[in-house]
Write a structure and sequence with these properties.
This protein is an alpha/beta fold and 389 residues long. The chain has 16 helices and 13 strands. Helices cover 42% and strands 15% of the residues. The two termini are 13 Å apart. One of its GO terms (molecular function) is glycosyltransferase activity.
Length: 389
């Protein structure tokens, strides 16, 4: 079976989110060598040599065939009427890519004419179901376009979690038997337990500290609630810091975060690291007294898995996909409830035995996920799509 995978998103020096998914999945698929693979992208605004550079960087000495389009740019496609894109000529003719299966790593656009079966990964429906939680108005619009394309094209879909599958099937004409849950994993070369005090020194952090990791100004991540919870316990836990490890781009939620920090009387104990390296992140997760991820909505919730892998006791919310990832190994709270979050933070801070119990359960839970398993399950989806022709 020949599989064409779309790798548009990997052309970035600092991959996160969907680029990381694409990189790790394709690496694992190539390593398994169960199928023949070729890679494609469609943005004429990017030079081919840039793509070749990142293909070599992320996929090593293995060099799959690389195709490109010369017709549309990403902007052209997103701004056009999706029905007209590739109407006069097939996607295959434009790209030169012919195969049995075409896997699109996100549903921002799907070709109108395609010789081959289509598989699309749907990571979440946040921007469609909760546009107020989207990072930007443009992001919400683009995701809505992609969702409408899925409803019209009805491809075989991969969902990161059962929660995402449920959202997709409830809000579209996609049937349950054409949506497959394929969980993600964390990169074992990046996330493992490592306690290097130099990381703390470099970031001007000391023990003990509570850690959050993720985009700081994403309104759905619950950072304001976390700050409120920290303020509730700060006097009793007078030596504890709150570390917010992640970048912010002054997007939709930044002004609210900034105002909350300015008004906090504990501002000097709240540290914003901005971007941290993968090595720094695993050390922060390994040395944190507690990892807190109070998100309101997640397609998967990878930081929870990463923190468990690194040996942090985890508090997260009891919504969307997060209980699927955390299993019985996390403490769960309701979103938008800083009082309950403060109670659970204080409870864990006051009991080393309880923290160790959740750390050990976290190690066991984290072992249930691997990129090889994700790749194997993805291959099974390819076979289903191929047999359904």
């Amino acid at each position: 079976m020949k599989v064409i995978t779309e790798v548009q998103t990997v052309c970035t020096p600092i991959p996160t989110g969907i680029p990381w998914y694409t990189i790790n999945l394709v690496q694992s698929l190539l390593a398994r060598r169960k199928n023949e693979y070729a890679l494609t992208f469609f943005d004429k605004d990017k030079e081919r040599k840039n793509y070749e550079k990142y293909i070599e960087k992320y996929f090593g000495i293995y060099s799959p065939q690389l195709f490109e389009t010369n017709i549309y740019s990403y902007k052209d496609i997103m701004m056009s009427n999706a029905k007209t894109v590739f109407e006069t000529k097939s996607y295959n003719d434009y790209t030169g890519a012919y195969g049995d299966i075409f896997h699109f790593m996100l549903p921002l656009w799907l070709p109108e004419r395609l010789n081959g079966n289509m598989v699309v990964t749907v990571h979440d429906l946040i921007a469609v179901l909760h546009p107020e939680l989207s990072l930007s108005a443009n992001n919400a619009v683009n995701c809505k376009i992609g969702f409408e394309l899925i409803k019209r094209k009805k491809p075989v879909c991969i969902a990161d979690s059962q929660a995402t599958k449920n959202d997709l099937c409830r809000n579209s004409n996609i049937t349950e038997d054409s949506v497959f849950v394929v969980p993600l994993a964390c990169d074992p070369n990046i996330f493992f337990q490592e306690k290097d005090e130099e990381t703390l020194k470099a970031l001007n952090i000391r023990n003990p500290f509570i850690l959050y990791a993720g985009t700081v100004d994403d309104p759905r991540k619950g950072v304001i609630n976390l700050i409120s919870a920290f303020e509730n316990i700060a006097d009793k836990a007078s030596d504890v810091l709150l570390v917010l490890a992640g970048s912010h781009c002054q997007r939709r939620g930044w002004e609210d975060i900034k105002e909350k920090l300015v008004k906090s009387k504990y501002r000097e104990r709240i540290i914003l690291t901005d971007f941290v390296t993968p090595k720094q992140m695993r050390n922060l997760m390994s040395m944190a007294s507690i990892f807190v991820f109070p998100s309101e909505f997640e397609g998967f919730g990878l930081p929870v898995l990463e923190a468990m892998t690194c040996g942090a006791p985890v508090i997260t919310t009891n919504v969307s996909s997060l209980p699927e990832v955390g299993g019985d190994a996390c403490v769960y709270v309701s979103p938008n409830n800083p009082e309950q979050l403060a109670f659970e933070i204080e409870r864990l801070l006051n009991s080393e035995m309880l923290r160790n119990e959740y750390i050990n359960m976290g190690f066991i839970q984290a072992k249930k996920f691997s990129w090889d398993k994700t790749a194997q399950m993805t291959e099974e989806v390819y076979k289903y799509a191929y047999d359904s022709r």
